Amino acid sequence: MNLETLLNRIPVLEITGNKNPEVSEIVFDSRKAVENSLYVAIKGTVSDGHSFINAAIEKGTKIVVCEDLPESLNNEITFIKVKDSSKVLGQLASNFYGNPSEKLNLIGITGTNGKTSATTLLFDIFKNLGFQSALISTVEYRIADEIFPSTHTTPDVLTLNKILAKAVETGCEYAFMEVSSHGIDQNRTEGLHFKIAGFTNITHDHLDYHKTFDAYLKTKKRFFDDLNADSIAITNIDDKNGNVMLQNTKAQKKTYALKTMADYHGRILEADFNGMLLNFNGKEFWSTLTGKFNVYNLLLAYAVTIECGFYEDDVLKAISNLKRVKGRFETLKSEGGIFFVVDYAHTPDALENILDSINEIRTKNERLITVFGCGGDRDHAKRPEMGKIATRKSTLAIITSDNPRRENPAIIIKEIEAGVEPQNYSKYTAIPDRKEAIKMAIKFAEPKDIILVAGKGHEDYQEINGVKHHFDDKEVIMELSQLMSK
């Protein structure tokens, strides 16, 4: 692509050198520079890309986009000065791949919990409606029936546009993507055109990165602030910050809720471990999903699909045929009659939601045993909160390791234990080895008891000292259940 086409709609402060060279590729990592590539120098939190301009040139870069021009300019190199390289990267990526987000109906879902479930449910609903779509989620990336491993909740903006361009090429009309706070803050969604933006909720998380809840909230809000007037913003107004997302958006505003009046209103009529009888906007239907948090996810997916122009009866039929999202309230039953729930809940709010959902369904004759931990090298403040919630709402809580990463598991467990209230000291134990913790839960359980194994969900690994070891909660449960029933 020639540079003039690539710079379409991009505010440039100054250009030196050849004004219209050909661009073979865009890179923002100097190590990936190739002949005739365009290198974008970004000022990051850890390093400044301007320090690697010469390294990129040595590898063949002929065009450099930067915020600060070098003191000595090379006439053979085109230098483009911009105000914000990080934002310009997104616009360049979009132009380079033919602005694919403008050729698709792109739906972005943000919030602390529910992003993966909502986007995956939408992908499956549209498949049931007969449409090919793309999915960009924590669990996986999908283009129609082709599956790719996920690297980030929201990948870098070059990867994003590459995926979306391939989706257009494949014939997809819709794309559903999780929009993380990290992705918003690092401008990974810059240059994308969203038809619909959905908000699930916002609770305590990622404060290791954002430092304060206010900063986290404002980052989420920025996603809606940046929407165009032809976009639609759909927010959960049962969440106390739901309306905050809509305060400055230019998009059309829509709401959904279970507790308050909204454009899209839902009610739970019946619920058990097999599913729920629901009422959305006056129409009843059955879903195999369960848990109040899943009603919110389904209601958001329903709202998005209706806003895309589909008939209500067709949408409800497609929703009724949905299966559970991998690692989200997945249920298993052992030969001995023990009921297992595997879920990705790894924040205080998510853990509380799933425990509340189980407690609403169980008859209280069964005991509820919770196995959980907290990830290492992440937000420390949520650890005691999760300790308090798990011990308060379970018959027994077994605190164990999640992904300790480079932290000492014993220290993580002590921080979780700090939140346990004195009256609940007798309701927990700590077993650092996750497999042994699950084994203890099964040993303690009796027929009809419920064991919740929370925190990892779909993940099939455990990261210890920076090394990923194969570990799948469901596999371990089935293996131990069979061994211990003999």
TrEMBL record:
Location, primary (coarse class): cytoplasm
Reaction(s) catalysed (UniProt annotation): UDP-N-acetyl-alpha-D-muramoyl-L-alanyl-D-glutamate + meso-2,6-diaminopimelate + ATP = UDP-N-acetyl-alpha-D-muramoyl-L-alanyl-gamma-D-glutamyl-meso-2,6-diaminopimelate + ADP + phosphate + H(+)
Domain Mur ligase central: 109-304
Post-translational modification comment from the UniProt entry: Carboxylation is probably crucial for Mg(2+) binding and, consequently, for the gamma-phosphate positioning of ATP.
Cofactor(s) for this UniProt protein: Mg(2+)
UniProt pathway annotation: Cell wall biogenesis; peptidoglycan biosynthesis
Domain named Mur ligase N-terminal catalytic: residues: 23-97
Top-level taxon of the source organism: Bacteria
Binding site for UDP-N-acetyl-alpha-D-muramoyl-L-alanyl-D-glutamate: S30, T153, T154, S180, Q186, R188
Pfam families: Mur_ligase (PF01225), Mur_ligase_C (PF02875), Mur_ligase_M (PF08245)
Location in or out of the cell: Cytoplasm
Keyword tags: ATP-binding, Cell cycle, Cell division, Cell shape, Cell wall biogenesis/degradation, Cytoplasm, Ligase, Magnesium, Nucleotide-binding, Peptidoglycan synthesis
UniProt GO BP: cell division; cell wall organization; peptidoglycan biosynthetic process; regulation of cell shape
Record carries keyword Transport: no
Cell wall biogenesis/degradation is among the record's keywords: yes
Amino acids binding meso-2,6-diaminopimelate: R378, D402, N403, P404, R405, G455, E459
EC number: 6.3.2.13
UniProt record similarity statement: Belongs to the MurCDEF family. MurE subfamily.
PANTHER family found in the cross-reference section: MUR LIGASE FAMILY MEMBER (PTHR23135), UDP-N-ACETYLMURAMOYL-L-ALANYL-D-GLUTAMATE--2,6-DIAMINOPIMELATE LIGASE MURE HOMOLOG, CHLOROPLASTIC (PTHR23135:SF4)
Protein name as catalogued: UDP-N-acetylmuramoyl-L-alanyl-D-glutamate--2,6-diaminopimelate ligase
Organism of origin: Chryseobacterium manosquense
